[in-house]
What does this fold into?
Amino acid sequence: MKTTRSYTQTARADGKVATRERIIAAAHDLFLESAYEDVTLATIASASGVSHQTVLNHLDSKLGVVLAVAELLSTETAAARRAEPGDVAGAVHALVGDYEHMGDANFRWAASADRIPELAEVLDGARAGHQRWIAEVFGPDLPDTEGDRSRAVVALHAATDVYTWKLLRRDLKLTRSETEKSIVDLVVGILKGTDR
It folds into this structure.
């Protein structure tokens, strides 16, 4: 009997994890396609095939869902942006690939952050992660002195930010290849400028 009870508890726990993951995956897809305000707990429940109450039982609130989706996006971003330190073209190619996947959603969340404080906190974490990526990928080419290094990281952040991608790709209607070349030019210019 103990074996059956243990198996039943394990199966139930596995089912809870699978349900939570299904909810987060559905919310992830909805947030990539729609504005934050347009994604409701009801639409998340419907897309994941569970009840509204089940979403609340697993993630407590829309904020809980957002934080779980942000964690998933952070993991995806880290995997998508892998590049060899010092390989500017490879890093920018990975970055633009990531923005092609989630840049529009990132921009929509940033636009909503002024009205929704919890989104501002999520975006602050994303910005900090972006600066860590910059320091890791461009680190070998950054200046040694702290002040110069900090200025270079800020300039590189501006050159590689989602707003820059949006300006080039969406507003100026450049191709992906042209966008990558433009961002590489900006990055190389900043890195060469720090040699002075």
Remarks:
- The mean pLDDT is 90.
